Amino acid sequence: MALKTQAYLSRTSGGLIEAQMENISVGGLYCRCSARFDEGEKLECLVSLTSGFHAGGDSYLRGSARVVRVEPTGDSELAFGVACEIQSYDILPPNAFRSAFSSQGPS
Asked: Is the pTM of this model over 0.70?
């Protein structure tokens, strides 16, 4: 399903990377970001879902994923397309974003 929205990726070594979500399905996601990931790398993701999934505001999908493909996009800011297999996820209620990655800030 096409879902162009804000997303954040986090490596196990730390640091939060802003990304642009392009699409998502039950099994995977594809986004564009400025950081290069390695195939097989494990990461955490946080995806802003549009209003309407929960009454009272935006909700977020927080999940664990494994990178399955990385490709250059030709975009100077969002230089890499990253395809991931979703391994597990939770839907967070509105206003939960601040605590989802509370120990990390955007890089």
From this structure: yes
